[in-house]
Amino acid sequence: MKIGVRKPSLKKSFKAKTTGALKRKVKKALIPGYGKKGMGWITNPKKALYNKVYNKTTVSAKDVVKSSLKNSKNSKRAATLNTQQSLLLNIVIWFFVISIIMLFLPFFIGYWMIKSIKL
After folding, report:
1. Sign of the CA dihedral 94, 100, 106, 111?
2. Which residues 6+ apart lie within 8 Å of 97 measured at CB?
3. Helix extents (H) in the chain
4. Spatial contact of 34 and 42, defined as CB atoms under 8 Å apart
5. Among 66, 57, 82, 83, which Cα is nearest to 4's?
6. pTM for this one?
7. Counting beta carbons within 10 angstroms of the beta carbon of residue 56, is it exposed (0 to 12), middle (13 to 18) or buried (19 or more)?
8. How confident is the prediction along the chain (119 residues), in pLDDT tens digits per residue?
9. Torsion of CA 111, 115, 118, 119, to 10 degrees
């Protein structure tokens, strides 16, 4: 039993994508229970058990690539949020600093003028 990443097969992928809906419709009309969930346990329980374990213990290479791309998009989104948050924080800090300067600036100017007049 394989555990880990499955080796992709281009031949099987192509066959699965090109098998037509017509063939599935014909089989569904002729074979009772074809394409219904859980029928594998009735027709071939050994194969169904093997497939269940195999699909739980392995992952396709396509899924690994998809999840890594999804994670990178999420990290980019988080980085964007962090950038926006840091920009907002910088704006708030500068607003606070400028308001403090504007509040105390008249006192400094007044002190400077009084000190220059006494000399």
Report:
1. negative
2. none
3. 10-18, 21-30, 39-43, 45-57, 61-118
4. no
5. 57
6. 0.46
7. exposed
8. 677 778 888 888 888 888 788 888 898 899 888 888 888 888 889 999 999 998 888 888 777 777 777 766 555 555 565 676 677 778 888 888 888 888 888 888 888 888 887 65
9. -170
